[in-house]
Design goal:
This protein is of the alpha/beta class. The protein has 17 helices and 11 strands. Helix 1 crosses helix 3 and helix 4 crosses helix 5. About 45% of the residues are buried.
Length: about 400
Amino acid sequence: MTPAARHAAAIGVLDAWADGVAAEQALTRWARGARYAGSGDRAAVRDLVYGVLRQKGNCAAFGGGTDGRALILGLMRLRGADPGAVFTGALHAPPPLTAAEDGARDVTPDPARDVPDWMLPLLAARIGAELPRLLAAMGTRAPVYLRVNRRKADSAAALARLAEDGVNARAVPGSDTALEVTEGPRRLRRSAAYGEGWVELQDLSAQRAVAALPWPATGKILDYCAGGGGKTLAIADRTGAAVFAHDALPRRMADLPARAARAGVGVDMVGTADLARHAPYEAVLCDVPCSGSGTWRRDPEAKWRLSPRDLDRLIATQADILAAAAPLVAPGGMLAYMTCSLFEAENEGQVAAFEAGHPGWRRLVQRIDTPLSASDGFFAAAWQAPEGSAA
């Protein structure tokens, strides 16, 4: 595909997204209908779509509208590219710019445009005077981080093995497991290091949160909201305890057994009906559904779909999960709470509410990263259950 054809494809995907189709679904539909598109074409179209979603407000301002054509035009202007090289009207290219589209626009970039207005005070409450810098960071693509599976390799061995397959990375200071990919991220899934379980994709902030908690070395650990199982595997790599994975939607864990086998760790899948049978657990992790406001560089679509009502529902769900998980913790055991959110109501607010309703629990850890201190925003807290009886 020519560059112009890739931009035309991105316009179509963005129009589908504006009609309510999820970005990944819209990209998949386009790719299925574009058998001629190679892997490089698909990656390029995806990058254009996600570039717009990260900076949609500015793209609209610079492009003069909110349809796919205007947004792609705005993205090109933001990036200093020449729209005339793409909007040519040639075969598979977007039609030429109209006189109105081609006119100069008296606008300057403003990262605040790229977040819905109602969210700005919530972010400002977290970051204060650093808000402009945070918003600017959210408009960029997040780095790719890997977690070294210490049962298979150390960082030095993993770096060398990755380099053999054209994936260059560097060790992250202060972490015994984190590597930042600096070159060749799209070769990763074909690399021997990945295929043989030496490394897993996992963001730096999540790795730091898992490493900061005092996981028991023996007994039983439950990942109550396991999802795809990234943190389940990270915990299993750090402990000799039996690790259990549960999710309210078990299909989210479909790939976890294969990933655990590849990593050389044991994970037992447990359904909701069997949670109590295996209880009590020496540690229970609740990595709860959240706004995802810390991960907007990776999932910028989420900020445009979230409403205040959605946030209220998430906060209620988070509190319900903590209330359901607490009785599963063994006396003296640990209950951990995590979100990939920057919003105080989902983090410190939930900590305060839990402690108000559970006065015998002792807080062990509370920490947060933002995209200014790690690649994503990530919150973690943990409590020790009262001794003597199950919570």
